[in-house]
Design goal:
This protein is of the alpha/beta class. Helices cover 31% and strands 20% of the residues. The strands form four sheets. A six-stranded mixed β-sheet has the order 6-5-4-1-13-14. α9 runs antiparallel to α10. The longest helix is centred in the middle third of the chain and has 26 residues. It is globular and about 70 Å long. The two termini are 40 Å apart.
Length: 425
Amino acid sequence: MRLLHTADWHLGHRLYDHDRGPEHKMALDWLLTTVVEEAVDLLIVAGDVFDVSTPSNAARQQYYNFLSRLTRTDCSGVVIIGGNHDSALMLDAVAELARALSVHVIGAARGEVQEQIVTINCKERKVPIAHVAAVPYLRERDVRSSNFGESSEERLANLKEGIQHHYDRIAEETKNTRREPSVPLIATGHLFASGAADDSGKASYIYGADEHNIEVDHFDACFDYVALGHVHRSQTLDEEGRVAYSGSIVPLSFQEAQSRRSVRIIDIERAGGGVSVSKRYLPNARRLLRFRGSLGEVLAQLRKASEEWLAADHPATALRPWGEVKVVTDDPVPDLKQRLVAAMREVVGRAGELPIQLLFHNTVPATPRALSDAGVADTRVLDEIAPSEVFADVCDRRGVGEDYRKEVVGAFNDLLSYCQEGDLL
């Protein structure tokens, strides 16, 4: 059987408040074409279908339109799990209807793990081709009960134990489900597995911002492949290629855009026979360009990028590049936007459309400086700053001691986790 593993679509995402809808449309169109051309039997979407728990109507329409078109292909089945950005209730609302179309949606963990095990039957012959242990993002309430008076370290340790126990239970149930020894067993997950690496610009806040939810070798050996989501960088976590992240299909930041987006195609001859893994790279619908340096360097970079864009032979579907500018200087540049635009005008002339749309421009200090009386030293915008960074800065300014700091940070992480689980952020 042939499996296509994708994750982290983040439909409805906005970059500096600019809509990503056209990029997502092109990515999903390409994905559908790939499913057909590669003769994919099973599609797995390992969480974070949407960017927020209350996605726009346009984002929902993209999701349902894709599934509608997919059910008209020869693909035998689809398994979709909820991620930490998704509303489990919204995904599960149409699960019963979707199942009739061989689209299996597991938005949240079930009380009985048996309900998370999906059997995929061949579309033509109606015989099993895979059993999937569909494990979604595991919220704290799914795997443990809070204990009064426990420390942050105890809570985190108990949380990890709960996650591991959930995978142990579902592995046993999946093995019991399989009647045919040759049918492969697949598992999913939306979490941060030990050994994974992500772009430094993307903060992964899950289970109290911990980045070691589960060890790779804790995924039972019965699983022929473990399809993971949450980390946006495509990577394999073991030598056999059995446990892997597919990565996001659209870069969610200018930093992520520096590496190509991809999906994984996995061929499995029979259970226990190993896997053959290959990547398929998505076309770059829109270039996200970063410009950083002194003012003179940035202006030169802008002119060069503008010339390259105008000289290149673009397909009709190509979208105009977006740019992010950070000028390194200790001096204010009050007319920065005008000077950036003027540099591009030198290339295209007065009447031509600017070749690059600048989404963000700012100055960053060339030398470190202390906090002012107003407490302002960080020139990043709010979207670039993680909640834990803000809280750590508050602790520093309030003079929170090391002995007390650990408990305070632990309490903040508990509160952050509670808000995320309740879709309050």
